Each structure stands twice: as C-alpha cells, then as structure tokens.
Amino acid sequence: MLEEVKDMPKKAVENPGGEVNVLKIYAVEGFNLELLKRMVDFSSNIFGESGTREWSLVPQIRHGNVFVLKEEGKKTISGVAILMRDWDDVDKAYLFEYAIAEELQGQGLGYHFLHSICENLKDQGFKRVSLTVDTENEPAIRLYRDKLGFRLVQYRRDEYGPGHDRYIMELELAPARAN
Fold first, then answer.
1. What are 59-101's pLDDT values in tens digits?
2. Residue 59 phi/psi, 5° resolution?
3. Signal sequence span per UniProt (predicted)?
4. Structural domains of the chain sorted by starting position, each given as residue range(s) with its CATH number in brackets
5. d(CA 76, CA 84)
C-alpha cells in the first residue's frame, strides 16, 4: 500500500518541535478506506473545500503519483504531494496538490519533501515539473523559486474564479543519474 521512497534527511527532522522522530516519504501504491480518509482529512484541513476528495484521490493513486510524508510507525500524515503526467507533454509532471501540515511548516520539511519527489520524478524519466501557486502565497513562491529553482513561466488571472490569480511555475529536472 505505502512503498517507502526514502528517509527525510536528518537535518530536516532533527528538531521540529521535538515531536517528530523519523519522517519518511512513501509512494502510495494502493489504499484502503482508512488511508483514503486520512488523506482526504489532511487535504481538507489544509485547503478547506478545495481539498482533494475521495472521488478524485482514487484515480490519482491508480493513475498518477501520490506521495505522503509521515512519521515512521504512526498514522498521522505530515505532508502530501499529488502529481499527474501532463497530457500534452508526457515529459512533464504537474504538481496538482502539495502541502505540509501547518504545525510543521517553516522548518525545511517542504523543501526536502519536494526535492526528494523531484529526484524520484527524474528517476521515472520526467524532464520537467510544473505547478500553480497563489500569487500572494509568498512562502510557497520562495520555496519553489528561491530554494528549488522553479521559474515563473506565466501569470493566469482568475485561474480558479474571480480574484484567484495564479502563477504557473516550472522546474527543469536534470537527467537521471546513470547507474
């Protein structure tokens, strides 16, 4: 059901409030109703009504890439990333949803989680990752642009309705390492 992708680097989890022991990244390969509910609850807590629901999460798990960040041996989810292949550009993955639990934000976990996912995408053969971000979400923009190297490629006014402007950002992935 959950296939371990990798441990978070020790420096990312050394002292996040003293509550987290070992965070691991898992690719969601299957699911049960309990996991599905936990993922939906996590998304709803972060994004409210815009969060992922069961009906959209099931096909994402079956046909996309879904990653969770969670403490080893615990059920609580600390982060979620949902990606899909771009229909018009099969070398590009689109980051559909990405979040770190609010109480763990600002500690470098977002960087390490997304960096590890990008490494995994390179290994899968993807060449680019794109995403949208609220034009007023400065912490996310700094993470994507300044820490991970995404570049702003487009501004979309009213992307999700009036007053919901978005930046489209894209990251070129280096070629996968030869074995």
1. 888 888 899 998 877 888 999 999 999 989 999 999 999 999 9
2. -65, -30
3. none
4. 2-172 (3.40.630.30)
5. 24
Other CB atoms within 10 Å distance of the CB of residue 167: 21
User: Computed from CA positions of residues 62, 5, 102, 145, in that sequence, does the dihedral angle turn out positive or negative?
Assistant: negative
| Measured distance CA(57)–CA(115) in Å, rounded | 22
Is residue 76 a contact partner of residue 68, using CB atoms and an 8 Å limit?
Answer: no
Residues 6+ apart with CB under 8 A from 32: 1
**What pTM was computed for the model?**
0.82
The H or E element spanning position 38 is helix 33-47
CA atoms within 13 A on the CB side of 132: 11
